Amino acid sequence: MTFSPLAFAFQIANFAILVWLLKRFLYAPLLAAIDARRDELAQAQNAARAAKLAADAAADAARAQARETEMARAKLIDDARAEALAERQRIVDGAHREAQGRLEAAAARLAGERRAAAHTLRADAAALAEALARRVMAGLPDAALDAGFRDAVGKWLDALPRDKAADLLTGTTPARIATAAELDAPSRTAWIDLFASRVSGAAKPPIFAVDPAIGGGVEIDFPGGSARFSLRAAAAELRTDAAADD
């Protein structure tokens, strides 16, 4: 077999044409398709990454929203619980105030009723004591009553300081002795002696008066004051004490 330069050149030319044809009609479209596919894959990956990022962001947002919703729900529950507790406390306080008011009103009513009852009892007791005293005094002789009250006045004067007794008994006007019944001469003399024994000097003798409203006992107007040892004064004091408890 002999080497032919012309045939060799022809084969080289054919090979070059084949390479050009392959590059022109096969490799270029294939490479373009590969590049297009690569671009599509890159876009798909980018889209996938973007979708994943969006999904993650959406998930984060959903979780944040869920947390906010849970916090809002918890706050609503806490607010509702606090409002319920406050309302219950208001109801309890209102009931307590109402009960306290009723108790105070009942206590005030009872206190008023008790004062009224005590006043009535004291008034009745005063009236009964006065009636009993009048009945007892009515059964005693006038001389014995006068002697008893004169003795009480003497003890009262003796219990006073000496200067105070002197101030009572001395003055420009005489003492006035009022009794329920007229005193006899011995009783008047006894009263004059009683005053004279308690003060020295120019004390004027007492004068005597009759006042049936006294009821019993004696009422004396001294130059320097007065003394009441009578049933009328005792009854008035009892009525005053009863009225003071209203």
What does this structure look like?
A four-stranded mixed sheet has the order 2-1-3-4. The chain is α+β, with helices and mostly antiparallel strands and 246 residues long. It contains five helices and four strands. The protein is rod-shaped. The mean pLDDT is 78. The termini are far apart. The chain has helices at residues 5-138, 142-159, 162-169, 185-198, 231-244, and strands spanning 176-179, 207-210, 217-222, 225-230. Helix 1 (5-138) runs antiparallel to helix 5 and helix 2 packs parallel to helix 4 (185-198).
Largest sheet, in brief, is: 4 strands, mixed
Percent of residues in beta strands?
5-15%
Average pLDDT works out at 78
Radius of gyration: 65 Å
Structural class: alpha+beta
**Number of continuous helical runs:** 5
Question: Topology as H/E string?
Answer: HHHEHEEEH
Question: How are strands sequenced across the largest beta sheet?
Answer: 2-1-3-4
Cα distance, first to last residue?
A: 162 Å
* Percent in helix: over 70%
Concise description?
The protein is of the alpha+beta class and 246 residues long. It has five helices and four strands; from the N terminus they run H-H-H-E-H-E-E-E-H.
